[in-house]
Amino acid sequence: MSVRQTLLAVTTVSLFALAPASAQTLRYANQGDLKSLDPYTLRETTTIAHHGHVYEGLTARDKDLKIVPGLAESWETPEPTRWRFHLRKGVKFQNGDDFTADDVVFSADRVRAKGSDFQSLVPIDAKVVKIDDYTVDILLTTPNPILNSQWDTWYIMDKKWAEANNAVAPTPAAATTPSFASLNANGTGAFTIESHQPGVKTVFKANPNWWRKPEHNLKEIIFTPIGSDATRVAALLSGEVDVIEPVPIQDISRVDSSPNAQVLRGPEIRTIFLGMDQIRDELLYSNVKGKNPFKDVRVREAFYKAIDIELIKTRVMRGLSTPSALMIAPQLFKLSGDFTRPKFDPDGAKKLLTEAGYPDGFEVTMDCPNDRYVNDAAICQAVVGMLARIGVKINLLAQPKAQYFAKVLKAGGFQTSFYMLGWTPGTLDAHNVLQDILGCRDDPTSGSGNNNLGGYCNKDLDAITGKVLQETDTAKRDQLIKSAFEILSKDWGYIPLHQQALAWGVSKKVKLTQRPDNQVLLYWATKQE
Fold it and tell me: Regarding predicted confidence, which is higher, 22 or 85?
């Protein structure tokens, strides 16, 4: 088995020999909230996983992250710019409506509409054509051999339901008033929503009419957000909840030594990184007026070299992180070993700032979530101290993810000057990073740069990204990807930090599948009485 296969292999905890037949209630707690039930509001792994219990895509990914049929039972490419999908017959939405091609066409329009955080999943210039009730063609302007690689998370919605409930438009992450689709759901998946109280509790009930044969034995899932690390761990150890994510690094040994729970560990393919606003002529949140320091490559290089990644690994992450030289996990790009992370060099960073005209540094606000990634706020606090050593004063704004994403994402107007973000490429391929995170966002029709919060832009890199999409020779494609990352490195466009390790707390009564994309998918869970 190759290194990639080993690292992407599913990790499964099996703590009892035979799952009981009786239906069970599973209680799940996460550090973050489930704000909106609209499947196009927030492209964030935990939220996507929640939605995946109710909604489904044309494709799915199995326990090994392989693409398998979903609401489409098969597909083919009769010609390079045309994909044909054959839809599954006899599938019903949870309100009883039939699933048909009309729902696919509607969902393609909705996912690309203003306010959607998933616009790049379906090319903006693609035409989605209904051939008959159970056949859909996707017509492209250029070949795209990985078109459906993210369609396991492009969840299909019921056109009739959306139109009847004034939910045709997607709910933006920055919305201040909840829409019908953000408070209600109607999918084709394994569970229905019985109740949803944002910030308090969401109850999922097993869908008795699900078209698949269930692999779970659950009658309901009760999800409760618990932001406090200590409270979340205590709830697991006392048996009040069955699954928690994440287990705080400092509590892993404690959970493992408990009689009724253990930690499910594994590698993650998400990269945590820092980004800088490089597009505005003046930063939104800085004491520098009339210009943008981050437009100077020397300032970006200085910030990069001021970060002591080994200290973050040993002190903040307690060894449970893999420092990264790239914006993608090494499991997903086999030439990643050709890149070396620049050495920590605070003296050199200070010199670069002086050369750029900031001998005394400057002041800037940093946006950071405090309930999304492992030790996210602590990492940001460490960065504050590191940048202080080169004279930069960071005003840290660490917020719950709902407020954080509403501010910094496209729907909120990219309102950030300096930020932390994590990214798992939905395609499990470098092209996703090149397009969504590194792509220029100056052309709204291109579908690129949707999550490029700082507006980094290099047209040469963009041109390579287009070639990567169409290149079918693996060796040539890898060289193209390498050249793109070389451009990024010379530009000092981002500051990659690390890949964090997965740590889920699981009751010894529960059997659960853990994938390296960190989606907690409970339709594969069984619980013992």
Answer: 85
